[in-house]
Model the fold of this input.
Amino acid sequence: MAAEPIYLVVEGHNRVLRPEAFVRALKGFARLLRELDAAVSRNARGSVSWEIVSLQKQSPARIGFRPLPRTRRPEQDFADEIKRTCVTGLDLLAKKPERLDAYSDRALDRTEYLAKLRASDRLDEMRVINNGSEAIIGVSTLSNIQTLRGPTYESAGSVIGTLDTIMVHNAFEFRVWSEITGKPVSCRFDEAILDHVKDALRKKVVVYGLVKWNVLGHPISVAVEGMDRRELDHEPTIEEMSGLVEDFTEGMSLKDYLEDLRNG
Done:
């Protein structure tokens, strides 16, 4: 008997689902399933492969993913446990900043990607359903993941990467894909430099400002004070790579400079 599918449900803003957002959601969810498989089965290659077995075209889109064993006679069937872990883990992250033991760091990365996609691509809904249970991926999911990881400190610094996705709906914000970590960094900026930001879309940039860093020392967000374009063959300096910029604090000590920024 074929295994029961696990379903991803996606609804576009005002019932209009953009193709690129749809494809990103499919890929992101498939990657999450693979990461959970690796964690549950303790097999880096995974115990199953995933195929799409159904697609409801009406709004919202409902896509069924079915697990297929990688071998004809697997020693142990992890399919149901993977699906349960997916829904239970997502539901937990939607409610509070906690994760299941089987929810690996890489699975958390994939979930964060889906939560950011839900927010940045103007998707009105994203849910996962399995065997009568369901979990919502939304704003609270992203907030709880960021709380779980948590910025541990702030400092004046810089982020180097490709500028991607400009948002002006609730606040002026763009995203930079960090050249160091390969992860997106949220950058809030003043409307006065909007044209400068638009000119740098899909270009390599160095963003300067007050940076929030997580426990791994990776940048999470930047309160933008300035931004420079970088040519593709530009080699970043040691100061840029380490997140420190010469004279950025205008001669003040870092402590005094941060206090001055916080006090406006």
Q: What stands out?
A: Confidence is low (pLDDT under 50) at residues 238-248. The first helix runs from residue 19 to 41. Residues 6-147 form one domain. The two ends are 64 Å apart (CA to CA).
